[in-house]
Amino acid sequence: MKRVFLIVLDSFGVGEMKDSAEYGDAGSNTLKAVASNKYFNTPNMAKLGLFNLDGLEGLEKEKNLIGSFARMAEASKGKDTTIGHWEIAGIISKNPLPTFPDGFPQELLDELSKRTGRGIICNKPYSGTEVIKDYGEEHVKTGDLIVYTSADSVLQIAAHEAVIPIEELYRYCDIAREICQGPWSVGRIIARPFEGEAPNFKRTSRRHDYSLLPPKATMLDAIKEAKKEVLAVGKINDIFAGAGITDSVRTANNAEGIERTIDYMKRDFEGICFTNLVDFDMIYGHRNDVEGYAKALTYFDEQMPRIVELLKEDDILILTADHGCDPSTESTDHSREHTPCLIYGNQIKAGVNLGTRDTFADIAATILEYLNIKGDVAGKSFLKDILK
Q1: Strands in the chain per DSSP E
Q2: Separate counts of helices (H) and strands (E) for the chain
Q3: Virtual torsion, Cα 114, 132, 170, 186, nearest 10 deg
Q4: Neighbouring C-alpha atoms within 13 Å toward the C-beta of 352
Q5: If you ran DSSP here, which 8-state letter would residue 69 be given?
Q6: pLDDT over 90 at 346, yes or no
Q7: pLDDT tens digits, 130-168
Q8: Are the CB atoms for 350 and 330 separated by under 8 Å?
Q9: Which of 328, 340, 359, 337 is nearest to 16 (CA)?
Q10: Contact yes or no for 98/185 (Cβ under 8 A)
Q11: Residue 187 in contact with residue 82, Cβ under 8 Å?
Q12: What's the N-to-C CA distance of the chain in angstroms?
């Protein structure tokens, strides 16, 4: 019974890539930014090789390693959640998903308004917390949808839950997903419900993402077709639009994501449990909150012994990320960075430095080889280098 627990620490980058300047991210290093904070303390990840990754300076390397490790480069064009996760699962995207820095075309908005029966306000790149401050009152008075975007390939719809019930908002996002195809194929439509009264509107935890279907089969499809389990925690099911998933659970925050992962660890199954911990990115990275990011990483590290304790003889734990989001820069956008890959288990050698890998997709190739499953994914397996 082989099981893989793949946990994505959303946005936990470990330093710029060669082409980072092309994305406006020269010098970005999420790990370095948070490691300087007094609340940062991650001894468990350090033992897996976090501070021993290629290219890191100013961080003390761990001598008593218990895991193997690699620095991952992104081969896809982009730095968003969808493309990052798709690459982890074995797809290299040659073209970036479309973004709309000047707002969405009027034709798109007209169709959305026609099919929902509601007006549209905002239509600009905006911070999710600021947009409800600036447009929340108008929305409450008129019932118009707050439609906005960001530097990512997203169309977001914010609505007050007392004005538009949550299921109705979800239906509007389904409509937006149907509309946003072809040249309008944003990576995600995101429902952004909020509550409260002006000026103290507050986003609720009932966010929901509506992603594009992956353009081809991923490692998840291969695992599912092999009659093994693909358990998704957090927004994984949304990111893959349900493709290749056998069971899933949504989560409101990192703490719940950790608990639901632990719940799955107590289940007998063969296959993969794929978890996304979103708070690093959503709450701290995008809000340039270095201290909050540091505390969140420390909290996760404190929970790691609980996770490690539940690993069975043939289980493998892999920690990685989908992009960066350096909270110390002026930008509140994702950053084009390398990501960590920390691997641990009773079957895994200690102290193997796999260097810098060409693509996140090496993770998919490695997992499929470990599970003895054939799949048409990009990437090269590093299993032989780390297996005892």
Answers
A1: 3-9, 68-72, 120-125, 145-149, 154-160, 188-195, 202-203, 208-211, 229-233, 247-249, 271-277, 315-320, 339-344, 353-357
A2: 13, 14
A3: 70
A4: 18
A5: E
A6: yes
A7: 999 999 999 999 999 999 999 889 999 999 999 999 999
A8: no
A9: 337
A10: yes
A11: yes
A12: 17
pTM: 0.92
| 3-state secondary structure string across 216-242 | CCCHHHHHHHCCCEEEEECCHHHHCCC
Residue in 89, 2, 96, 53 with CA at minimum distance from that of residue 362? 89
What backbone phi and psi angles, to 5 degrees, belong to 296? -65, -40
Backbone angles phi, psi at 254, to 5 degrees: -60, -45
Q: Which residue has the tokens 């499929």?
A: 368
Residues linked to residue 339 through DSSP beta bridges, in sequence order = 72
| Length in residues, the chain | 388
Write down the mean pLDDT value for the chain.
Answer: 97
Report how far Cα 217 is from the mean position of its chain's Cα atoms. 19
Burial status of residue 284 (CB atoms within 10 A of its CB: 0-12, 13-18, 19 or more): buried
Give the amino acid at 218.
T
